[in-house]
Amino acid sequence: MLDQLYRQLVVDHSKNRRNHRKLEGEQIKQLHYKNPTCGDVMTLFLKLSEDKRIEDISFIGEGCSISMASASMMTELLKGVPLKEAAKLRQAMEAMVRNGEVSEEIDLGDAFALEGVHKLRARHNCALMAWQALDRAVGEETEYEYR
Ligand code: ZN
Q: What number of helices (H) and strands (E) belong to the chain?
């Protein structure tokens, strides 16, 4: 049952991508990212507030359903979130996708539907592409650190 629900969520997010649009303006960070293992591509758009919060986030891209669903889920999850919090969410997402570890303290929202991807080694980068793009895009922000 849960498997089926998760599969539906992934299909829904890959077909009806949330925040699948460009952001424009002077303060917009923009980062193009490619997943070499599957050919998925995306551009991440990010607007940060003065107090290092993700004010707005969006993406455009093309790729497999896992990569597009994951990007869609990520943008939904991160809107309004401080960068520090985003770093924790990213760690939780890595642990889940790479090792199947699910934290009870951290709410990944719809992205929990990607838990099963940990069994599919070749798809790990698909599920993590958007998060890796985020990492690059905010890499220079001092507030964004692991732990
Ligand atoms: Zn892919």
A: 4, 3
Question: 74 lies in a domain?
Answer: yes
Model confidence over 47-95: pLDDT tens digits? 999 999 999 999 999 999 999 999 999 999 999 999 999 999 999 999 9
> Taking the alpha carbons of 42, 59, 130, 6 in that order, is the dihedral positive or negative?
negative
Nearest-10 Cα torsion for 93, 94, 96, 101: -120
Q: Which range marks the domain in which residue 31 is found?
A: 2-140
Residues 6+ apart with CB under 8 A from 18: 72, 73, 75, 76
Report the number of distinct structural domains present in the chain: 1
Ligand 1 mean position, distance from CA 26 (Å)? 31
Q: 66 CA to middle of ligand 1, Å?
A: 6
How far does residue 113's CA lie from ligand 1's centre (Å)? 16
**For position 97, which CATH number holds?**
3.90.1010.10
Residue 145 lies in a domain: no
Instruction: Give the distance (Å) from ligand 1 centre to CA of residue 40.
Output: 5
Distance 139 CA to ligand 1 centre (A): 23
